[in-house]
Amino acid sequence: SDVCSSDLPENKPVPDYESIIKEYRTSNKYEEIQEKFDDADLKEYAVLVHSVKSSSLTIGALSVSEMAKGLEFAAKSEDVDYIKENHYAFMRAYGELLDNLDEVYGG
User: Fold this and answer.
1) DSSP string for 45-93
2) CA atoms of 51 and 85, how far apart (whole Å)
3) For a designed S-S bond to 56, which of 10, 65, 87, 96 qualifies (C-beta 3.0 to 4.6 A apart)?
4) Neighbours of 54 (CB within 10 A)
5) Cβ-based neighbours of 33, under 8 Å, separated by 6 or more
6) pLDDT in tens, 1-46
7) Residue 29 neighbours by CB distance under 10 Å
8) pLDDT band at 106, cuts 50/70/90?
9) Which helix (H) or strand (E) holds 104?
10) CB half-sphere exposure, 3, CA atoms < 13 A
11) How far is the CA of 3 from the CAs of 19, 49, 60, 106, in angstroms?
12) What's the mean per-residue pLDDT of the chain?
């Protein structure tokens, strides 16, 4: 069904896409994720990739979100082999996404 203005909470402005992108860029978890990977801190790694999973889904970055989801579940189940096999591809995709957003929305 269509959403009409009466369905939206009063006095709650709908954030525009640019402000959502700005928030995504400023909440960059790239360095922290790499640090937790290097330290083999699976608990914090899971928390960080969960955050990227959710925020990437919000901006429509489905492939990065799905990659983060796989890593989150692997970290929670202590599947170190999966993480080692998929971490760098995820970091490359996440890094490229951040770089592209910086190019489009200002570095």
Assistant:
1) HHHHHHHHHHHHHHHT-HHHHHHHHHHHHHHHTT-HHHHHHHHHHHHHH
2) 20
3) 65
4) 13
5) 45, 48, 49, 52, 91, 94
6) 444 445 555 555 667 888 999 999 999 999 999 999 999 999 999 9
7) 19
8) confident
9) helix 80-105
10) 5
11) 21, 32, 20, 32
12) 90
Residue count (the chain): 107
Q: Which two tokens stand for residue 65?
A: 């979100």
What are 60's two structure tokens?
């429509």
Q: Please identify which residue in the block is written with the tokens 């860029």.
A: 25
Residue matched to tokens 């790694």: 45
Structure tokens at 94: 């996440």
Tokens found for residue 82: 């999966």
**pTM (2 d.p.):** 0.84
Q: Give the amino acid at 82.
A: Y
